[in-house]
Amino acid sequence: MILSTTPTIEGRNIREYKGIVTGETIIGANFLKDFMASLHDIFGGRSESYEKVLAEAKDTAMREMMDRAAQMGANAIVGIDIDYETVGANGSMLMVATSGTAVVVE
């Protein structure tokens, strides 16, 4: 599956537009990750535990979107957008939503 944030794929012709596809995931962060992140806020540095959760959520949403595109007969997705939001009590959950247009390219 070819993936692109642009509306076209250089060197490939879009033969057919299949429709809009999406992928969503919501992942909760646990107490230990919150505690470690708060230490990074105080002392500086990156929070590797949150970065891993964020990457996992993005990958899950992208896979879901690709699966939906494949079910429609597409071999590429163009115009991909990735949105990140916190949801739940005190922003305790992370939502990642992806969207794009499923297409068939030559």
What does this structure look like?
The protein is elongated and about 45 Å long. The protein is built from 2 helices and 4 strands. The protein is α+β, with helices and mostly antiparallel strands and 106 residues long. It has a 4-stranded mixed beta sheet.
List the helices and strands and how they pair.
Layout (H helix, E strand, L loop, with lengths): L1 E2 L10 E15 L2 H13 L4 H24 L4 E12 L5 E13 L1
Parallel strand pairs: 1-3
Antiparallel strand pairs: 2-4, 3-4
Q: In short, what is this structure?
A:
By secondary structure, this protein is an alpha+beta fold. 35% of the residues lie in helices and 40% in strands.
- Gyration radius over CA: 17 Å
Q: Biggest sheet: strands side by side, in what order?
A: 1-3-4-2
Let me know the number of strands.
4
What is the helix tally?
2
Task: Name the features.
106 residues, 4-stranded mixed β-sheet, 2 helices, 40% strand, 35% helix, elongated, alpha+beta
